[in-house]
Amino acid sequence: MKLRVGRLRRTLLAALVAGAVVVPVSAAARPQVPAPAPADIPSLTAATLDTAYDANRANAAEAAGMAERYGDRDRAARLRAMAGQERNFLSFDGRGAGRTAEVLGDLAAAERVAVLVPGSDTGIDTYGRFRAGAVALHERLGPRTAVVAWLGYETPGTVSPAVLTTDRAEEAAPELMSFVGELNAVNPGARVSLLCHSYGSVVCGRAAVQGPQGLDVADIALYGSPGVGVDRAADLKSRNHTRIWAGRGAGDWISDVPHSSVGLFGTTVGFGTDPVSPGFGARVFPTGDGGHSDYLKPGSVALESLARIVRGQSPEGASDA
Fold first, then answer.
1. What is the C-alpha separation between 42 and 51, in angstroms, rounded?
2. What is the pTM of this model?
């Protein structure tokens, strides 16, 4: 045990030092691109969805123009694409790394709704890969479903001190809790599932334990997870007997990350028990041989498992941990 803790401390310290150097240098090398404040939209209901979509498209178009004038043509091109008439955002903020919540499908009429919560290094400049996973899932789910790509928090960098602690997740958790409440208000009859990737699983974990009654969702699926800040699936509170799932691809490097936590520099570093371990108690679903970024890859075992979870089914080959 002492050897394991010692190894963990050395690993985390090395990452902290690297992050402390890399993050300031990166931030200094790329100043923030200017963008407008988010649009003022009414509270989300089924009746106000189109108003929100129109306002957020206009905000993205304005952000694209500001980025173009600033001289960042790549950012401007991404924002222009996001302002397309076929894109539907429940929220949009082009400032900094960016925050969005994009809907694929008819949210008000959907019987099943999947909310994707991303991990590190996700923002407007890398949004394409996050959205591609949402598109693949929605295509696999079929009609009367909706997928929401929820980029509702400032994700940490993969190499940074922030990715080693729950601090960003603690800040993001109230936003996710509020967002789930908004979805339930828009479509009270829909079955909502949270699909949480990598550091996003830490966000989902904190949201589930912060509120007095947990999250009002049918499923929480954790994949590529470093841990969620609790030692047992039973510690993730819910209102509707939420099914807790966990999966990890055979080629995912996250398996080499020590699943433990230690006190370091006045904070807790690491996220506790491995969610796919027997001691955690989640239902383990098949994921195939994919790597850390392959869970929503079209045709993959993991994508099929996640689609079945959203439909309220059990993935073939799933088992209790």
1. 8
2. 0.89
